[in-house]
Every structure is written in structure tokens, then in C-alpha cells.
Amino acid sequence: MANDLLGMIQGYLTPDVMGKIGSLVGESPAAAEKGLGSAIPAVLSGLMNMGSTSSGASTLLNLVNGYMSGNLGGSLLSSLPALLGNSQQSSSMLSTGADLLGKIFGNKTPTVAEQVAKAVGIGSPSATKLLSLA
After folding, report:
1. C-alpha closest to that of 10 among 30, 40, 31, 32
2. CA distance 27 to 23
3. Would you place residue 111 in the very low, low, confident or very high pLDDT band (cuts 50, 70, 90)?
């Protein structure tokens, strides 16, 4: 059992889930997995940076409370295979994720996506979607 946040998240990224994510972002499952390997730490880093000030921490708490009470809250990771298998829910996840990216990274979101894309050899649109999912 993973004893760290990244390990816990990666435990949910089964081959079936990675196949669905790859299809959703237009990449092979292997490329999607590699992309998430960079996207997840980037998002966690952005969240840590956001929470490093009292105003950022307050904003972050409000975001968590707001999004967790919505349709995508609760047991999102354990529900991931079913969510990814439903195009409407997948679109909703991407939209919610894109909204959150804007709050976490602001106008630097395209730069972060480009860095992920270059690091793993995928296109920026795919990297943006992976960041949104992360």
C-alpha cells in the first residue's frame, strides 16, 4: 500500500483507466501515463504554492469545499473508470479541471502545459487535458 499521496493516486491508474485516459486525450495509454507522471506533481506543486500564503490557503480551502460538494466530489478516484466511460462526465471532469487550473496557475497554465508536453513528448493540447484530469 502506498504511503504517500502520489503513490496513492497512481494506485488508481490501472491499465483500464490509462486506456480510457489515453483515448480521452488523444494519446496512447503509455504516453498518457507518462504525461500524468508529470502532470500530477505539477498540479500538486501548484496547490502547495497556492497554499503557502494565508490568502492562497483560504482560496484553496474554498475551492476544495466548493468542488467536493459538487457532482465530482466524494470518491472521485475510485469512481474514475465509470466516469471516464461516460462522455458527458468526462467532459464535465475536463471542464472542472480546466477551471481549477486557471485558479491554481492563472495565466501560467499554458506554460505549465507546454513544460509537461515537452517533458514527455506529447502535444500541448494533450498535456492541457492531462493537467485538467490531474
Report:
1. 40
2. 6
3. very high
Residue type (1 letter), 65: N
Using the CB atoms, write b or e for 69-98: b if 16+ within 10 Å.
eeebeeeeeeebeebbeeeeebeebbebbe
Asked whether the beta carbons of 94 and 21 are under 8 A apart, the reply is no
d(CA 130, CA 25): 7
Whether the CB-CB separation of 127 and 116 falls below 8 Å is answered with: yes
Q: How far is CA 47 from the centre of its chain?
A: 12
Provide the whole-model pTM: 0.85
The tens digit of pLDDT for each residue in 35-80 reads 999 999 999 999 999 989 999 899 888 877 776 655 444 467 777 8
Residues 4, 70, 59: CA angle, nearest 5 degrees? 65
Instruction: Between 66 and 85, name the one with better pLDDT.
Output: 85
Closest Cα to residue 43, out of 94, 103, 3? Answer: 103
